[in-house]
From TrEMBL:
It comes from Dyella soli. Gene3D superfamilies: NAD(P)-binding Rossmann-like Domain. InterPro entries: NAD(P)-bd_dom_sf, SDR_fam. SUPFAM superfamilies: NAD(P)-binding Rossmann-fold domains. The lineage of its organism: Bacteria, Pseudomonadati, Pseudomonadota, Gammaproteobacteria, Lysobacterales. This is SDR family oxidoreductase. The keyword Mitochondrion does not apply. Pfam families: adh_short_C2 (PF13561). Coiled coil: none annotated. Belongs to the short-chain dehydrogenases/reductases (SDR) family.
Amino acid sequence: MSNPRKVVVVTGASQGIGAGLVKAFRDRDYRVIANSRSIKPSSDADVLTIAGDIADRAVAERIIKEGLAKFGRIDTLVNNAGIFVAKPFTSYTAEDYAQVMAVNVAGFFHITQLALAEMEKQGSGHVVSVTTSLVDHAIDGVPSVLASLTKGGLNAATKSLAIEYAKRGIRVNAVAPGVIKTPMHAAETHAFLAALHPVNRMGEVADIAQAVMYLDSASFVTGEILHVDGGQSAGH
């Protein structure tokens, strides 16, 4: 007997945008498979937490295998896990490069490949990745080459996968945020960060959650890079 309740995988789910996404999906009665390195068990029977580094394929395999064992299906994958290292280009170390590539690119590759294989069996599904508006709108004073290199790749992969899977009932989209008010940004930086946006404020976690929820319900939208950036990508 099939279970009609939908199931979402959220990576980078322990705090900030990821935690907001878990709540938003639960508010819509989705069952959630939540992953991050440090995520703790949940008291909610409809939230399965799996701790581990998404860059490790074995962790991605566990997420899908244990999620299917508990909930029986995978309807949506949100690739939210990511690392942002702001340094001048020539100051990046080999370790910086390896770490950012591992989480932002390998992490995306492993879990997306495994999730899509299950969605294809169902004949339906949705993948949405959280990237960055910096891909389209570089900002003087915010050095971000590794973010642009990796998240720009995800934007391109989003469009490629959208076309590859369009006739198989699977949609693929991305949300490109501006700077979002999360614990990673100290309060004393907020005024500077707000001024980077034409609307003169930072984004809220709820802004990104709303965008992801829109895309998840928008059955005629695929291959879209939805900018949720206070106008950054339009100009400054």
